[in-house]
Amino acid sequence: MERSASSPDVVILNGTSSAGKSSIAQWLPMTLDRPMVCSGLDVVLMSMPIKLHGHRDGPYFESIADGTVIRLGPTAIEIARAWHQAQATLVRQGFSLVLDEAIVCEQLLESLIDAFKGMRVWLVGVVCDEAVAVAREEARGDRQPGLARGLAELVHRDVEYDLVLDTTAISVQAASECVARLINSADPTAFERVTQLRSASRPT
Length: 204
Known about the structure:
about 200 residues; alpha/beta; two-stranded antiparallel sheet
């Protein structure tokens, strides 16, 4: 596959843990038949120094009434911002991205807006029946228990989408084909709407 001569796409897959984002991210480049750089929150977290994990300055888990959530301390946010800026450099060099994200706080949303503003960005919400997501989480065995339930609503707060995928009963291939059809038939609008809403809400 050769790099597309058209404007590169940034596809942000946002959803709770075990909703199917990573699998869609892996399938999408094959479905679109183009090279795409795959990254996301898990990659950023794994890149952080081990001593930051579990520390209030880095990424840490917190139990809430509905499950477990990920919190990002100040240094974790700074690293995520730098990571997003580095990814934006790839886009400026002509590479498309697919980001497997969980927008767990408004600082992450602001970081994505700052990094990719003015680019061709698709926001895709990935949702799943809670019981199915929890079962997937338990079957994987490599996720903090409770994340699927705890992040289910949090990650979608203040985010709008060009497309929402319910992966409860569809295959990864079918989900990636839905995203590909959208990219090939329309222009993204959700990211610009979110950018404008965030801009309007900032103090002047």
